[in-house]
């Protein structure tokens, strides 16, 4: 698959470039990114370099599609579809750099990615899954705000650099409205 650039009112979602290595490396020093995403831990500069090289290859395979999120010249995060099965399903994943959290960039980027994922001239998905390490409240709040429906706990199902974790799972169907739904794990 050829890479696609997506644009919103203030963001551009595109492939990472060599000039992004420093920003990727700095953001991925964040303890929450290392705890709640599958990035290597510790995260080295060489990991950022490998990421920049790998993303275009992943697009060619069509199984993992990752964008960096830019606000102007500033890289504020990454977002993508993973485990695209060719049968109408894929999983959304994202992280936002610590200095950009709370600014709404994640929801803005995610709406563009979800719209493209469901569009017939995009991926034509029927279902988008969201999974996160149990306890990742910030990611769960973002997914809920995007209209994902909480579906349950996956015991020891998420495997990352630190081992196995319980995971939360939610889904969004093409026909769903995208209003926030109740999530029992966020009712506290």
Automatic annotation (TrEMBL):
<dbReference type="InterPro" id="IPR016181">
    <property type="entry name" value="Acyl_CoA_acyltransferase"/>
</dbReference>
<dbReference type="Pfam" id="PF13302">
    <property type="entry name" value="Acetyltransf_3"/>
</dbReference>
<dbReference type="InterPro" id="IPR051908">
    <property type="entry name" value="Ribosomal_N-acetyltransferase"/>
</dbReference>
<dbReference type="InterPro" id="IPR000182">
    <property type="entry name" value="GNAT_dom"/>
</dbReference>
<feature type="domain" description="N-acetyltransferase">
    <location>
        <begin position="23"/>
        <end position="175"/>
    </location>
</feature>
<protein>
    <submittedName>
        <fullName>GNAT family N-acetyltransferase</fullName>
    </submittedName>
</protein>
């Amino acid at each position: 698959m050829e890479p696609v650039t997506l644009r919103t009112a203030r963001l551009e979602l595109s492939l990472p470039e060599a000039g992004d290595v420093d920003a990727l490396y700095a953001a991925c020093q964040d303890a929450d990114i290392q705890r709640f995403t599958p990035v290597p831990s510790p995260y080295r500069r060489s990991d950022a370099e490998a990421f920049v090289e790998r993303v275009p290859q992943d697009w060619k395979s069509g199984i993992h599609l990752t964008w960096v999120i830019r606000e102007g010249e500033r890289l504020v995060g990454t977002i993508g579809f993973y485990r695209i099965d060719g049968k109408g399903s894929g999983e959304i994943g994202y992280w936002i750099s610590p200095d950009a959290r709370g600014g709404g960039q994640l929801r803005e980027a995610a709406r563009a990615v979800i719209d493209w994922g469901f569009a017939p001239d995009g991926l034509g998905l029927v279902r988008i899954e969201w999974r996160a390490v149990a306890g990742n409240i910030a990611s769960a709040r973002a997914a809920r705000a995007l209209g994902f429906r909480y579906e349950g706990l996956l015991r020891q199902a998420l495997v990352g650099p630190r081992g196995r974790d319980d995971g939360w799972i939610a889904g969004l169907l093409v026909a769903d409205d995208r209003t926030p739904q109740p999530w029992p794990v966020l009712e506290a």
